[in-house]
Design brief:
By secondary structure, the chain is α+β, with helices and mostly antiparallel strands. It has four helices and nine strands; from the N terminus they run H-E-H-E-E-E-E-E-E-E-H-H-E. Helix 2 crosses helix 4. The longest helix has 22 residues. The radius of gyration is 24 Å and the shape is elongated. The relative contact order is 0.20.
């Protein structure tokens, strides 16, 4: 009986979406805003500790002032030093009804994009250059880090799932060393700004997506549907 009811509900949802105007989730904008806010609150409660930055290694074999400099330097213990803003891009808040004919299922996707502005990432810098131990600290500033967030509800089974996808905007801000020295001036030009992207992928899949799903399942349930209602 439950199987038949679920099948009927899925079919009705699809039919209604084709024949009625403004089939939608009631007040999806407020729901998504609060969903993301609760997610961020959990991350902040943990002092952003889940947002670790992967270590990066830099191989050096450069000629500077007619002298060859060789060595390996590791950027480790990366973390967010500062962030100017964390906002939700309002134009990306939307609901999408998707019907898959092959599986005869309808899903509801609640989408949004979270943006971190002017994010400074700090590193400890250690290695060996020309046979000598090297230690320093460095930061790099990213003008924008974005995360596309999606909460998915299967209207056939009511099962929830989530996913998150990072976007890292290119930065012309090179590593800033403190103190600056001859070696750091070489390292500035060897660091690949995109080396941070794998860290953002981890934040998306292991931090933001799981927390969004748990928030929706345990404390912030999806609101009801509205058929033929005003936008």
């Amino acid at each position: 009986m439950r199987f038949l009811l679920c099948l009927l509900f899925s079919l009705l949802a699809f039919v209604f979406s084709q024949t009625l105007s403004n089939v939608r989730l009631a007040d999806h904008t407020s729901y998504i805003v609060e969903l993301v806010q609760k997610t961020v609150d959990r991350v902040q409660k943990n002092n952003w500790n889940g947002l670790k930055v992967h270590d990066v290694s830099i191989e050096i074999d450069e000629e500077v002032l007619n002298k060859t400099i060789q060595g390996t330097v590791f950027l480790s213990n990366g973390f967010i030093v500062s962030m100017q803003h964390l906002t939700l891009v309002s134009s990306t808040i939307q609901q999408a009804w998707l019907y898959t004919r092959a599986t005869n299922t309808t899903t509801l996707e609640l989408r949004s994009t979270m943006q971190m502005t002017n994010v400074a990432i700090g590193f400890d810098v250690d290695g060996t250059i020309d046979g000598e131990k090297y230690h320093n600290t460095a930061t790099i500033l990213y003008p924008s880090m974005q995360f596309r967030l999606v909460l998915v509800r299967n209207l056939f089974t009511d099962e929830l799932s989530s996913r998150a996808e990072p976007i890292l905007w290119r930065t012309t801000n090179q590593l800033q060393f403190l103190p600056s020295d001859t070696f750091s001036q070489v390292l500035v030009h060897l660091y690949d700004w995109n080396s941070t992207f794998p860290s953002l992928q981890t934040w998306a899949s292991e931090v933001f997506a799981p927390i969004i799903l748990d928030v929706a399942e345990t404390e912030h349930p999806i609101p009801g549907f509205c058929y033929d209602c005003p936008a």
